[in-house]
Design goal:
By secondary structure, this protein is of the alpha/beta class. It has a single domain (58-282), classed as Alpha/Beta hydrolase fold, catalytic domain (Rossmann fold, 3-Layer(aba) Sandwich). It has helices spanning 2-13, 32-35, 73-76, 80-86, 113-131, 143-154, 176-185, 198-202, 208-214, 254-257, 272-282; strands at residues 63-66, 91-94, 136-141, 161-167, 224-229, 249-253. It has a six-stranded parallel beta sheet, sandwiched between helices. β3, α6 (143-154) and β4 (161-167) form a beta-alpha-beta unit. α5 (113-131) crosses α6 (143-154). The longest helix has 19 residues, at 113-131. The radius of gyration is 17 Å and the shape is globular. The chain starts with a helix and ends in a 19-residue tail after the last helix.
């Protein structure tokens, strides 16, 4: 009953969205209930992975979308991928981090984060080769906003990346409870915690991985960082642990823009205000000013 009410509320809230450009041919549905209901985890999200796409002068860098723990490219990017495509970007998305057979049941982002960063590195190289671009921009949710930092810092990714935009990224870790909430949301996720989810352990506050990642500072020179976070994040806790420090960082708290935004961790990729902030971060010369309309949590709060 509770989940049914959430679906209804999210469906209603999706009516209050920033319209896509008139010339757009891909629907953008700001509904986490719609997005996470997708059961084809290996299917590219709308607008993504057109390997013939060539970046325009207005948007010279392709965008790489990186999902979070237990998620996949299809259920994470049903809003942001078509939104970016409609606004003129070449968009690419990948699945990464299958571990102990998790990918076979549509559960990704569970493997060791260092190995996932290597997968991202190979994917970025493929994108650059196909598009002819010299750099990409990366947009990630949860682990997908944090893991690329390892690629930038330790795998040579800084020279190939102009900007990293994180939606509720687990930059400084979370609690065991936070990982548990995330696992319970994704069908089958609870089966891949603990020993079957190295990435879960590595995202716990105080892990050796996070100590390595954050040693010597949060950022590397030459990359622009944007963190977009919600006060109501129940997975990355405290919510402020998502934020980064550095002269090349912009930290955004959604509730400072719109008090009506009650979105939580899982709703972030489907929050029209957060997605407008992504567009602004990727194209700061043309800032978006989304309407302040109600956003409700994916799980119902």
């Amino acid at each position: 009953m509770r989940r049914s009410l959430v679906v209804l509320f999210l469906a209603l809230s999706s009516l209050f969205v920033v319209a896509a450009p008139a010339s757009a041919d891909l629907p953008v549905i700001y509904s986490g209930a719609y997005g996470y209901a997708h059961v084809s985890p290996t299917a590219s999200p709308p607008g993504a992975n057109d390997w013939s796409c060539k970046p325009s002068s207005a948007h010279p860098r392709p965008v790489v979308l990186v999902h979070g723990t237990f998620a996949d490219m299809s259920d994470s990017w049903q809003a942001l991928s078509p939104l970016l495509k409609n606004n003129g970007w070449c968009v690419f998305a990948l699945n990464y981090g299958s571990y102990a057979g998790s990918g076979a049941v549509g559960i990704y982002g569970t493997g060791e984060i260092r190995n996932s960063a290597k997968e991202l590195s190979a994917f970025v190289d493929k994108v650059l080769a196909a598009t002819g671009a010299s750099q990409v921009d990366i947009v990630g949710h949860s682990q997908g906003g944090m893991m690329p930092r390892y690629y930038l810092k330790f795998l040579g990714g800084a020279s190939k990346t102009h900007a990293l935009v994180g939606l509720s990224p687990s930059n400084h870790g979370t609690t065991v409870d936070g990982i548990g909430i995330l696992a319970r949301f994704f069908p089958g996720g609870s089966q891949f915690t603990g020993a079957l989810c190295p990435a879960c352990e590595e995202q716990i506050v105080g892990s050796a991985f996070l100590a390595e990642l954050n040693s010597g500072g949060d950022t590397v020179p030459g990359v622009e960082y944007t963190v977009i976070q919600t006060r109501y994040d129940q997975v990355v806790t405290p919510y402020t642990s998502a934020f980064l420090s550095g002269s090349n960082v912009k930290n955004i708290l959604l509730q400072n823009q719109c008090i009506l935004d009650l979105g939580d961790h899982l709703s972030m990729p489907y929050d029209h205000i957060a997605d407008a902030d992504v567009l602004t971060a990727l194209d700061p010369l043309h800032p978006r000013n989304p309407l302040c309309t109600p956003i409700l949590p994916t799980e119902g709060g």
